[in-house]
Amino acid sequence: DMDPFECRLNFLSLLEKLNATQYSIYKVATYAVRHRNLAEDLYSCLLEQLDKASINARVNIVCVLDAILEISNKARFKGYQDLTRQDLARIIETVVPNNAKGNVNIGSTRKILDNWRRHNYFDSSAIDIVEKPLLDREAAAASSQIASEGGFSKEDMLRRMEEDRERHKRFREEVWIRPAGEPIDAEFQQLWESTEPLVPETDYEVMMLQNMLRLPHYAW
């Protein structure tokens, strides 16, 4: 086994070089799972870097944590999951601080929380608790007439948009992968519960319009 001090230094070095690409994220995550006998040490390194990182880099680090949980789950190792569970609120508050700059991380963080909920890494109630402030802030931002850029330059915003696209690639791919052993109607139930109630006053008109566009020669 590698010396714990050396392993920790190597992991910190990987975290410092981390970027938004899937290759970089999985390289760090794979290292953490490969040396899972030192999970507590490496997890503390991750939290240490999370506290020091820029707003943008914090999303990359929580993406690493997401990848660690994914790989650990396949390896049937629960150590990182147990460690994360006790710090869930702290992690989310650090990634999405309650200020204008923190608001830019809400979307990416919610995608990660949705992924954790879908894979049952943590109790849904625990995820709901840490997600609620994000939902409230997202709703407040959406209702605001003035969009805040949080002090970011145009170049920062463009770079951030590009990095978000890179980070979200895996989520777009994973959304079609269902957890093993789930009930046969689980996907239907998830879609059913997330569908808003029918509003007869408007929805029927929209449905009819869509039908007419799709089959204009049918006697609707």
Brief characterization of the structure:
The chain is mostly helical. Helix content is 71%, strand content 0%.
Describe the structure in your own words.
It is a single chain. This protein has 220 residues and is mainly α. The protein has one domain (4-183): Alpha Horseshoe (Serine Threonine Protein Phosphatase 5, Tetratricopeptide repeat), CATH 1.25.40. The protein is 71% helix and 0% strand. The chain is built from 13 helices and no strands. It has helices at 4-16, 22-34, 39-52, 55-74, 79-86, 88-95, 100-103, 106-118, 124-143, 154-167, 169-174, 186-194, 200-214. Helix 1 (4-16) packs parallel to helix 3 (39-52), helix 3 (39-52) packs antiparallel against helix 4 (55-74) and helix 4 (55-74) packs parallel to helix 8 (106-118).
Outline the secondary-structure elements.
Elements: H1 4-16, H2 22-34, H3 39-52, H4 55-74, H5 79-86, H6 88-95, H7 100-103, H8 106-118, H9 124-143, H10 154-167, H11 169-174, H12 186-194, H13 200-214
Helix pairs in contact: 1-3, 2-4, 3-4, 4-8, 6-9, 8-9
The amount of beta strand, in percent, is under 5%
The value of Rg in angstroms is: 21 Å
The overall strand count is: 0
**Which of globular, elongated, flat, extended, rod-shaped describes the shape?**
globular
Domain module count: 1
Helix content: over 70%
Shape-level CATH architecture: Alpha Horseshoe
Order of helices and strands: HHHHHHHHHHHHH
> What fold name stands as the CATH topology?
Serine Threonine Protein Phosphatase 5, Tetratricopeptide repeat
Task: Provide the CATH top-level class.
Answer: Mainly Alpha
Given helix and strand content, the structural type is mainly alpha
Low-confidence region ranges:
none
Biggest sheet, in brief? none
